[in-house]
Amino acid sequence: MIEENNVISIRKTDRFTLCTGKLHKDGSIEEIHKIGNAYLKPGAKTFRLKFWMHPRESYFLSRDHDSDLIYTILSVEEYLGPNLEPKTTWREIGKGYVMGNYIRLEFYTMKDEVYLSLFPEKFESKEESIAS
Predict the structure, then answer these.
(1) How many domains would you assign to the chain?
(2) 127, pLDDT greater than 50
(3) In a domain, 7, yes or no
(4) In the list 13, 18, 60, 115, which could disulfide-bond 36, CB 3.0-4.6 Å?
(5) In a domain, 6, yes or no
(6) Is the model more confident about 104 or about 131?
(7) Which range marks the domain in which residue 68 is found?
(8) Residue 106 lies in a domain
(9) Are residues 49 and 58 in contact, defined by beta-carbon separation less than 8 angstroms?
(10) How many CB atoms lie within 10 A of CB 73?
């Protein structure tokens, strides 16, 4: 949190790491390259995924209704219909599977192993950085 003019900012989202990785035989995951971030608002159930290779696009990761361990990866297309009314189309583009402290993302068109770390990144406040 940043303190400025006696105002303490309120955390709006948690940020999580998206990375390529390798699953080892013992079940551990080795993070190889950081490739973006995932964001989750407090109390929300859907992550917003931002990949650095597609900086203008957002993808979404939502838990399946019938499972706590399986997620669906979605893209959204927004456009104007024939009467100029806004339309939205959601398309499934992959699945996610909880694997310990990660969600393994399997995109239908990508073969790379992509993982979302379930531990949010930590941000130091001014007080914490001064104390260290």
Answers:
(1) 1
(2) no
(3) no
(4) 18
(5) no
(6) 104
(7) 12-123
(8) yes
(9) yes
(10) 22
